[in-house]
């Protein structure tokens, strides 16, 4: 069955209305070509470009302490979602729903400016004598817009969001503890304090002459680069998904370092020889540790989900490219569809999940005893089933343990939410209203 026939079958299966006419689709792609024309602009030395983790200068701790710590964001994960419709025998309705969303993504409109409004949150366990509860801290919102053509401008904004108990149960326990306005929690390798205040939007060096390219993976991507991306799922997978994971890259770097140390001339000083031997032994131990982590997820599905999420969040991918990437991800080994979910903003979506991975938190970085132990989680990427737009990405607890030993499966770890994004003909402005 061809891709078009398959997606037509999905529409019938889900009893969806027919998609836009061929004339409407052709017009949408024509708009994309018109509005996204133009060449690469050359940036002056030292010029900065911000997206996602490149926070505006001067913002509070909530925007600058985000890291790869074993911390948790508590969000509902599908509770109260409607039961999926019954499907014919042998049909994976969950994955078909993602494919249907991909079909709709092909028809997203374009405009003169691309904008994206994103929220990042982590949650922590606060443990007063009155009862442990969760709070979302390191809470931030960023807003960026970029003109489709060079010279139409670009700007990046950021603000801190209030730390807060995320569920009614947590709020009740927070009130029982006296409704504190500040929360001191363990984050990364130190204690951080988050409070209930928000900060105003702060612009970070807006460029009235900018536009025409977007920042991703350490460099600028020009409109012509986006226009030249393939739409075929297999070619997209080969380019963006079938790449080494961060763990594999780290392992290879350590292997090169160890080999360089072994080939270096042997020091004449016995103490220096012993130091070199200990250094090589330490590197080998770290290489073995990373190798064991890689062995737990041989298909690298978590990294693939994260790669796809970063592409969709960072770049205004042409509609057909976005749809092809969704189909490519759905076909990856270890990636499975998990059906209806609810994100942190209460929006219903359809999601793909990577294979489970286990994280071990030791006292190596000074972690308190309450934070130590192992837990298992998986990475999810969520789409709007009505439009195919990306709603966000999150890590979800599947086996409690460590700092989360008291939490139930479904606890969310390190989430990004796309509050809104898309093309518009009017110059975008950050929303005044807080998202929560």
UniProtKB/TrEMBL annotation:
Please list every transmembrane segment annotated in the UniProt record, as residue ranges.
57-76
What are the protein's UniProt keywords? Membrane, Transmembrane, Transmembrane helix
> Which source organism?
Actinomadura napierensis
What segment(s) does the record annotate as region Disordered?
1-28
Q: What is this protein called?
A: CU044_5270 family protein
Going by the entry's taxonomy, the superkingdom of the source organism is recorded as Bacteria
